[in-house]
């Protein structure tokens, strides 16, 4: 299997020792990984691996001969793994497959312990809590292309979720932005086509995506005879799923995680958000970086990890299904009752992460506390059931009851765990001591031997004393002969007399050793007991581990039921937490419909900005936004700092929240479903790709112009400001006209090109609005109020003063501005001289295509193909 270009090469020693030869052999197979090579209580790294790890982990390294060497403790290696994975490295874990004693028994004293890689740790295949973000999904994503067909598959082995989607070229980047994978797999051809992805992807050879091999992989993994049983999969979708499974089985070294069957993600089921829109709207990260002050951070009041992850998924994929959206609203309404909401949230606050505990158990990486998590989830589910039963007249809670009532099998398993697992178990299974007394008779026996040797020997000594009637009889222990019966030489005589030994009671004693003053004996019972005692601790741990494996298998058999419970808990969590937000922050339910135009928001607020203001004791000034047939595209002017960008974003965020099934920060909202939201706000370059700020702006604008429809919402700010005034003005006008005439979409178009306001006379659906300011004594005051009409100034010099430019500069700028305004030509720019130019509406793409057709030259087949093309346009 081909991997990314090799970062490290095997150690080259002139005469490697057998152990180093073993290391080189393993390293050669995993050249793209840092190799953790188990040696006793440490994982050792050699050569460039050691140098790399020491730099990332800030650990010292020494040398083995001429070879750099560094190590991390085996028992604490996960802490170091987390840092290496975060730094972008992959780590191959090479463990000892036998003990030194077993190796010696096999090949003598020169034997080398068998070692091999048991797992490859990569960013997209993590399962440990210490390596994962609790509220963020950890997706491995695969992109494929067969002929002209694209597909993506993404899965999270820490939760078992698996999805697949058929894509067009234009949908590839939005899909990546929506999924936000921790690791991305591409073929070399795909990396060439999408060159911007190459540096963040794991590149595989084309053979890795072979259709026949990937099909077999899918069938084998799910034990199917036909792909059709999974649903209607295209060849590209099959390839993407199979490639993901191949990579998982390679990295997990054939330990198969439990993964749900790949669910087909229907492209038209959710609103599409492209990367720049997700970034500009600060949905998951703020403009400063990090989760804080993002929309998700602002809205996430969930109590469980499952609820937090589902909320993030809903914000990434706002629904286009009105019935689904209204069902989510109904769930929120159901928790408006204070007692019901508080009681539910108090229970949810105790709910562990069911999905990830179950995943670790299925992978063989779980611990006693994962089992405890399943036990706890079962009890909390029953308490939730009791709560829902009290409100069963509400259809929402009746639905929850139906789900929770189907979990009888989980209750039976929960009862087993009640008997099996102690209340405060250790973290690791290897520590033992997590199975309760009385659960397994054999385990109790060995634990008793391990923990009660002195009491057992005292009891046996008393027993033998009574049999023999000898007062000096004692059971002793030494390191040479172990446990033995010690009797004074004088009293031991009867036990040595053959005649006396005819007594059945005395025949059990076996002469062991004669000393000057004492004679030592043993019995078959004592010999067996000694063997048991010597291995009691080892056997007790072995039995506990076997019992744990059995319980893990039973948990895995209940995988689908636990997934159903987890999803129900997440839904309840989102509904109850959003109800709490709705009450505390005055959020309200939207009225959603399928009309093309409807967009009527009363007293809208920006959720993130409002929370920031409230935290400082300030209030947010709300605004209305209404689109209709004569008012579908707003042209917004006004000074910087007046709130144009906030107004643009808040309306987009409210539509996004509404379609995600959440209540919104507005007095009321009547909204028609949008297929996409496009946001072109802010400025930034892309130096790594050699793109200037203006080029990035134009690229993002091009995506909007090429992909928006009449059902989309478009918000754009300052198109054309990154180039010369005439160029920028021309581009801005052309874009505005295209939005109005060709796309006919709902849109908010903010600009400092005041000349554009003249187009209100020529464009039927364009309306001018401005952010009001009050000018007093040479100072301006932002009113944060959107009003009808156009602004006549940008107040740039005033904003420059607020920013702290030196007074000398701002006074000079004000003087120059007055001079330019005084000497400016009174006639309009030719671009807007309506006396000379009559606005011509841009032709619809279908009309342009028709203009190029010669009907006399069309065959019936070509005419039919053309008809389909025109219909699509």
Q: Can you characterise this structure?
A:
The protein is an alpha/beta fold and 873 residues long. Helix content is 44%, strand content 17%. The protein contains 31 helices and 27 strands. The strands form five sheets. Strands 13-23-24-25-21-26-27 form a seven-stranded mixed β-sheet, sandwiched between helices. A six-stranded mixed β-sheet has the order 3-4-2-1-5-6, sandwiched between helices. A hairpin with a 4-residue loop joins strand 8 (149-156) and strand 9. Helix 15 packs across helix 17 (408-420). The chain is elongated and about 135 Å long.
Topology overview:
Layout: H1 18-29, E1 34-39, E2 42-46, H2 47-57, E3 62-64, E4 67-73, H3 77-86, E5 91-96, H4 100-107, E6 115-121, E7 140-146, E8 149-156, E9 161-167, H5 172-179, E10 183-187, H6 188-193, E11 201-204, H7 211-221, H8 235-251, E12 263-264, E13 272-273, H9 275-280, H10 295-299, H11 305-316, H12 322-334, H13 338-348, H14 354-362, H15 368-390, H16 395-404, H17 408-420, H18 441-451, H19 453-468, E14 474-478, E15 482-488, H20 493-496, E16 510-514, E17 518-522, H21 524-534, H22 536-557, H23 559-585, E18 591-593, E19 599-604, H24 607-615, E20 623-627, E21 633-637, H25 644-659, E22 668-672, E23 676-680, H26 693-707, E24 713-717, H27 725-743, E25 746-750, E26 766-776, E27 779-788, H28 796-803, H29 807-823, H30 845-851, H31 860-872
Parallel strand pairs: 1-5, 7-10, 9-12, 10-11, 13-23, 18-22, 21-25, 21-26, 23-24, 24-25
Antiparallel strand pairs: 1-2, 2-4, 3-4, 5-6, 7-8, 8-9, 14-15, 15-17, 16-17, 19-20, 19-22, 26-27
Helix pairs in contact: 7-8, 11-23, 12-23, 13-15, 13-23, 14-15, 14-22, 15-16, 15-17, 18-22, 28-29
């Amino acid at each position: 299997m081909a991997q990314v270009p090799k970062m490290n090469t095997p150690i080259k020693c002139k005469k490697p020792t057998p152990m180093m030869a073993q290391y080189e052999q393993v390293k050669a197979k995993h050249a793209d990984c840092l190799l953790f090579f188990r040696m006793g209580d440490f994982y050792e790294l050699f050569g460039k691996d050691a140098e790399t790890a020491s730099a990332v982990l800030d650990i010292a390294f020494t040398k083995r001969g001429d070879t750099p060497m560094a190590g991390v403790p085996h028992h604490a290696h996960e802490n170091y793994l987390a840092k290496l994975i975060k730094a972008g490295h992959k780590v191959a874990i090479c463990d000892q497959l036998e003990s030194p004693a077993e190796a010696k028994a096999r090949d003598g004293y020169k034997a080398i312990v068998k070692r091999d890689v048991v797992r490859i740790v990569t960013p997209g295949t993590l399962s440990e809590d210490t390596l994962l973000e609790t509220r963020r999904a950890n997706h491995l994503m695969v992109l494929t292309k067969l002929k002209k067909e694209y597909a993506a598959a993404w899965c999270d082995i820490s939760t078992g979720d698996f999805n697949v989607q058929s894509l067009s070229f234009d949908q590839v980047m939005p899909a990546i932005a929506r999924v936000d994978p921790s690791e991305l797999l591409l073929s070399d051809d795909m990396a060439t086509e999408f060159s911007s992805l190459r540096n963040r992807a794991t590149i595989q050879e084309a053979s890795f995506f072979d259709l026949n091999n990937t099909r077999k992989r899918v069938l084998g993994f799910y034990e199917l005879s036909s792909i059709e049983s999974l649903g209607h999969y295209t060849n590209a979708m099959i390839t993407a799923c199979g490639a993901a499974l191949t990579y998982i089985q390679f990295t997990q070294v054939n330990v198969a995680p439990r993964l749900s069957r790949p669910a087909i993600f229907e492209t038209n089921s959710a609103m599409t958000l492209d990367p720049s829109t997700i970034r500009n709207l600060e949905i998951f990260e703020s403009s400063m970086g990090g989760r804080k002050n993002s929309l998700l951070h602002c809205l996430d009041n969930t109590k469980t990890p499952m609820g937090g992850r589902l909320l993030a998924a809903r914000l990434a994929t706002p629904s286009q299904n009105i019935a689904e959206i209204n069902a989510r609203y109904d769930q929120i309404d159901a928790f408006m009752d204070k007692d019901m909401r508080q009681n539910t949230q108090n229970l949810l606050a105790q709910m562990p992460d069911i999905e990830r505990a179950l995943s670790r158990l299925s992978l063989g990486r779980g611990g006693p506390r994962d089992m405890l998590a399943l036990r706890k989830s079962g009890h909390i589910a029953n308490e939730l059931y009791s709560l829902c039963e009290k409100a069963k007249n509400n259809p929402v809670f009746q639905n929850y009851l139906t789900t929770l009532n189907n979990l009888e099998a989980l209750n039976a398993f929960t009862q087993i765990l009640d008997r099996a697992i102690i209340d405060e178990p250790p973290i690791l299974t290897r520590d033992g001591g997590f199975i309760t007394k009385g659960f397994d008779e054999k385990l109790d026996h060995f634990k008793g031997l391990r923990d009660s040797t002195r009491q057992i020997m005292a009891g046996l000594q008393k027993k033998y004393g009574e049999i023999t009637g000898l007062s000096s009889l004692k059971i002793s222990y030494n390191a040479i002969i172990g446990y033995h019966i010690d009797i004074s030489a004088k009293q031991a005589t009867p036990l040595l007399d053959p005649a006396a030994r005819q007594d059945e009671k005395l025949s059990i004693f076996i002469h062991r050793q004669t000393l000057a003053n004492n004679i030592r004996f043993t019995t078959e019972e004592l010999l067996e007991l000694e063997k048991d005692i010597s291995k009691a601790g080892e056997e007790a741990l072995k039995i506990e581990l076997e019992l744990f494996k059995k319980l893990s298998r039973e948990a895995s058999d209940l995988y689908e039921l636990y997934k159903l419970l987890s999803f129900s808990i997440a839904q309840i969590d989102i509904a109850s937490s959003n109800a709490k937000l709705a009450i505390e922050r005055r959020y309200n339910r939207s009225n959603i419909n399928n009309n093309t135009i409807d967009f009527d928001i009363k007293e809208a607020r920006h959720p993130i900005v409002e929370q920031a203001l409230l935290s400082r004791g300030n209030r947010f000034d709300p605004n209305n936004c209404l689109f209709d047939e004569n008012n579908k595209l707003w042209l917004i002017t006004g000074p910087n700092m007046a709130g144009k960008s906030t107004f643009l974003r808040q309306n987009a965020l409210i539509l996004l929240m509404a379609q995600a099934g959440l209540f919104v920060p507005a007095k009321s909202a009547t909204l028609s479903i949008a297929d996409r939201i496009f946001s072109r706000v802010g400025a930034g370059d892309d130096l790594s790709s050699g793109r200037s700020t203006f080029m990035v702006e134009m690229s993002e604008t091009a995506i909007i112009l090429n992909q928006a429809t009449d059902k989309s919402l478009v918000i754009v700010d300052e198109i054309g400001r990154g180039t010369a005034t005439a160029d920028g003005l021309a581009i801005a006008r052309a874009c505005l006209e295209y939005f109005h005439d060709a796309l006919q979409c709902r849109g908010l178009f903010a600009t400092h090109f005041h000349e554009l306001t003249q187009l209100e006379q020529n464009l039927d659906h364009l309306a001018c609005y401005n952010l009001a300011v009050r000018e007093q004594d040479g100072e301006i005051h932002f009113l944060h109020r959107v009003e009808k009409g156009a602004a006549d100034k940008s107040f740039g010099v005033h904003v420059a003063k607020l920013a702290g430019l030196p007074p000398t500069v701002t006074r000079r700028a004000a003087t120059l501005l007055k001079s330019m305004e005084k000497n400016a030509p009174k006639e309009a720019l030719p671009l807007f001289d309506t006396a000379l130019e009559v606005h011509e509406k841009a032709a619809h793409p279908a009309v342009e295509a028709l203009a190029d057709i010669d009907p006399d030259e069309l065959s019936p087949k070509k005419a039919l193909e053309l008809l389909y093309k025109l219909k699509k346009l």
